[in-house]
Amino acid sequence: MSQDEFRDMLPGHAEFQLPEPPAPKKMNGRRPVPEKPDEQLAKLEQTAEPEAAAGDVWDRRVAAGLAFLRRRLAGAYEVDEFGFDPELTEAVFHPMLRVLYRDWFRTEVFGIENVPAEGPGLVVGNHSGTLALDALMLTVALRENHPRRRHLRLLGADLVFRVPGMSELARAAGATVACNPDAERLMATDQLVGVFPEGFKGIGKRFSERYKLQRFGRGGFVSAALRTGTPIVPVAIVGAEEIYPILADLKPLARLLGVPYFPVTPTFPWLGPLGLVPLPSKWLIQFCPPIPTAHLTEYADDPLVVYNLADQVRETIQATLHELLQKRPDPFAR
């Protein structure tokens, strides 16, 4: 019997096996190398990608901002004959207004398909809100919702263009004086023009008269539309009446300051500058079907035709206001 056979006969020897030696631990200097470097590397790459993407976004924003400043300082931008600056409007004015439009007023828009996709158009709306924010929100609504992202060229009162600083800002944003010659020139160049025939009577009326349209004046906007054959698009705006509810009008103080009215609201002038913060009402904007005027150009100077057409626009807006108020029973609903 050999020595190996003898060892195999010993009890427990056949089942006994020497343990395998442990795998040597890989070292990088004095630090052990991770057992699964590929998985950890993949995780690092996954977390690095969003960070890199976020960094790229901010890099692009900073680069775009610096390029914008260079163009402004060098005067390398264009304005039209009325002073409209599309770049400044898109880069500065509208981003600020969108915060009010989307988050503060939670605006909903209906009937945007009634606004012409191209060519001239005269958008006629009701006016309210003490500070005429409805006009600004209307420009944002068209820019945000219209398929062609059209700019609205507002017609403003003389007072706007007599205030130092405000005149330049208004013209840069696309506004001009509310007069027939300017309106007709804009529409003759296929612009979308916005007008509020109630004027100061609309934005200065008391809260007790909310959503009751005031007189539309002499119908000058109708004459301008008739002379150029421009379709008239009535628009009803609900929500502006509640942002600064006018409880009283201090007329002696208004005359002293040379303004149409001096409003007293639940927050102004009691809270000082904080009283200028608008209340967060819910806004609804409805564009009504356009009223064609191309077949009535020869009646631009006929007072009867002008008055009847202006009255038709007014009644359309008033009826639409009642419909929107039924859709929005709570003025401050989400």
Automatic annotation (TrEMBL):
Species annotation: Actinoplanes siamensis
UniProt keyword annotations, A-Z: Acyltransferase, Transferase
Protein name listed in UniProt: Glycerol acyltransferase
Residues annotated as domain Phospholipid/glycerol acyltransferase: 121-240
Residue ranges of the TM segments: none
A GO cellular-component term linked to this record: membrane
Biased composition (Basic and acidic residues): 1-10, 32-42
GO-annotated molecular function: acyltransferase activity
Coiled coil: none
Spans annotated as Disordered: 1-52
